[in-house]
Amino acid sequence: MRTSHILSLALAMGGAGMAMMPQAQAQSRQAVREQAEASMVLTGEIDIGTEGQVEGFRMDKRDQVHAGIAGFVEETVRTWRFQPVQVDGKAVQARSPVSIRLGGRINPDGTQKVTLLAASFERYDDNATDSVTRLKLPPPAYPEDVYYAGGRGDVLLLLQIGRDGKVLDVATEQVNLRTIATEPNMRRMRDKLSRVSMGAARKWTFKVPTTGEDKDDASWTVRVPVRFAFNDGREERYGKWDAYIPGPRQQAPWRADKALLDDDGDLLPAGGVFMADAARKGPRLLTPLGG
C-alpha cells in the first residue's frame, strides 16, 4: 500500500515523527533514510468466530490515528483467519487483545510504503498458576548519559528462573532503539540499556508454576520486556510515527541448543512475564499479516 499523502510529513527526517540524535543530523539525509524505518504500534481487541473468522475489531484511541492508517489496518485485520479457539473440544467465539506494529519506509525513488510488520496476541495474567508470574520486579535505572542524550529503547530479556523463584541467569535477547544516532553511538546505547536491565533483573523474584504440565520443571525461561521512555509527556505518541531501529537477536547461553524463533517480543505488553518455551496462549493466526 503506497500512501505518500499519509506519510509525507510523518516521515520527514528531522520532523516530530522521527527522534534523531544530534550526531545523526550530521549524516546525510539519504544515509539516515536508508538506516531508519518509521514504526507505529496500535492496539485493540479482536472478536473471533467459531470458524476462525474475524467478527469484530476495535482499535484503541482510534481518534488519535490518521483516518487512512486506521482504515488500512481495519480493512487488513478483517481478512485475517485464525485457528478456531476450542474449549472442551468445541469451537467457541473468543476475544483477544492485539498489538500491531506498522512500518513506514521511504524508498530510494522517493515513494513511501506502509506495511504490517508484526502482531502479537499475548495476554499477561498475574494470577496464572500454570506459568511463571512476577513477584518483585523493580525497574532498572535509566542510564543518565542515554537519558540526557534523548535515547529511548526497548530491551527484551531472557531469564532462567529457579524453583525458588530467583533468577539463575539472565541474557539480553534484543535491544530495539527508538532513537537514531550514528552506528557507534547506537551500539553504546544498546550496550548500556542491556547492562542496566540485566543488572536489575538479577535481583528480581517470581512466582513459579504450581499447576500445569510445566510445574515440575527444574527451571523455566521467561521473556520480560523492559521499556526505557521519558515521563514528561513526550512519550505519549500513540498513533504517531516513531523511529524503530531493530537490534541483532542473540540466544541465551543456557538455550544455545535452541534455534532463534521469529518472535515479536517487542510487542509483548510492558510489565508482563512470558514463558519462552511454552505454547503461546493467544489465538493462532493462520493467514499472512497482510491478509
Task: Provide the descriptors you would attach to this structure in a database record.
single chain; 291 residues; alpha+beta; TolA/TonB C-terminal domain; 2 domains; five-stranded antiparallel β-sheet; four-stranded antiparallel β-sheet; 17% helix; globular
Q: Which quaternary structure do these chains form?
A: single chain
- As for the CATH topology of the largest domain, it is TolA/TonB C-terminal domain
Radius of gyration: 20 Å
In CATH, the architecture of the largest domain is 2-Layer Sandwich
Report the portion of residues in β strands. Answer: 25-35%
* Secondary structural class: alpha+beta
Compute the number of structural domains: 2
What is the residue-mean pLDDT, rounded to a whole number? 84
Termini gap:
12 Å
The count of β-strands is 13
What ranges have pLDDT less than 50 throughout 5 or more consecutive residues?
A: 1-19
